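STRUCTURE:
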């Protein structure tokens, strides 16, 4: 499994992690993923999967890079501290490695929320601060609201059927050393199946898959992970899919395959 550096932290995380939105698999499936290198597990207070993640990491906590998220209705100072405590309890751990603001709030000033985030870091309850679904401008505001620590990641939708973050957000995050955590990297499963809406991309993926001796899911994940500051967190309920997704790492598409996909997935 290829590792990448999280922000400017020096911490290494695997480029394929384990998403858990609508995860209905067993804790063993996540444990298996950790064993084979996908040690970055992503959850959120809103998913209802912190308990199953807690079960999965029990006894192997030190091997896992654990990420969860707070919802905007908990972005007031005291509410965020309480939300973190509740997540820690459900996860059965004393520290969250990456605590993310799930999406921007229109109601609570980012300064207030980040003050609580900084207290959580200072107390050792969280190790790193992340955001999710933040635009360039919102990311700048989040950075400016912090006085002692940095925003290390922005979790956003990114896959071959939606490359819109490539124009502004990715270049900005590259300059600022903010890791992009790509969510829905398989376009909610569409990219794992041969007949997606985009017929041109579908046929290119099919031909690249054959040439490279990989699956469409692997080719799709490998392509987005070709950027140094991107890691992906596909969700898979079955151990077979987890293994297949993990095997999207540790090799490179040929230049020709890369360009064919680039061309077919533009626009
Ligand atoms: P996704 O990972 O793009 O796709 C998940 C779907 O792909 C599932 O139906 C899964 O099937 C299927 N799949 C996975 N690996 C496969 C394989 N090798 N072959 C065939 N099918 C495969 O979509 P997602 O769940 O929306 O996104 C992933 C994670 O991103 C979430 O779980 C969550 O952690 C995060 N997320 C974050 C936000 C946010 O706002 N921050 C929003 C959405 C998602 P099975 O489950 O049957 O294996």
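SEQUENCE:
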């Amino acid at each position: 499994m290829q590792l990448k550096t999280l922000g400017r932290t020096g911490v290494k995380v695997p480029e394929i992690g384990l998403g858990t939105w609508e995860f209905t698999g067993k804790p063993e499936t996540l444990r298996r993923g950790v064993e084979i290198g996908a040690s970055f597990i992503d959850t959120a207070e809103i998913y209802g999967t912190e308990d199953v993640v807690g079960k999965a990491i029990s006894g192997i906590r030190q091997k896992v890079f654990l990420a969860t998220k707070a919802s905007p209705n908990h972005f007031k100072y005291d509410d965020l501290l309480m939300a973190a405590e509740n997540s820690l309890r459900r996860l059965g751990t004393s520290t969250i490695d990456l605590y993310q603001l799930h999406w921007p709030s229109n109601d609570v000033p980012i300064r207030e929320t980040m003050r609580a985030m900084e207290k959580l870091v200072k107390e050792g309850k969280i190790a790193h601060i992340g955001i999710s679904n933040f635009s360039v401008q919102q990311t700048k505001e989040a950075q400016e609201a912090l006085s002692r620590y940095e925003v290390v990641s922005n979790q956003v939708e990114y896959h071959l059927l939606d490359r819109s973050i490539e124009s502004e957000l990715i270049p900005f995050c590259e300059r600022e050393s903010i890791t992009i955590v790509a969510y829905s990297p398989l376009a909610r499963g569409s990219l794992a199946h041969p007949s997606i809406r985009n017929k041109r991309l579908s046929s290119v993926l099919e031909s690249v898959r054959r040439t490279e001796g990989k699956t469409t899911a692997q080719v799709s994940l490998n392509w987005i992970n070709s950027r140094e500051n991107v890691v992906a967190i596909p969700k898979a309920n079955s151990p077979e899919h987890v293994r297949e997704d993990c095997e999207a790492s540790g090799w490179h598409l040929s230049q020709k395959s890369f360009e064919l996909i680039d061309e077919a997935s533009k626009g």
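REMARK: Strands lie at 3-5, 12-14, 18-19, 40-42, 65-70, 96-101, 126-132, 151-157, 179-183, 230-232.
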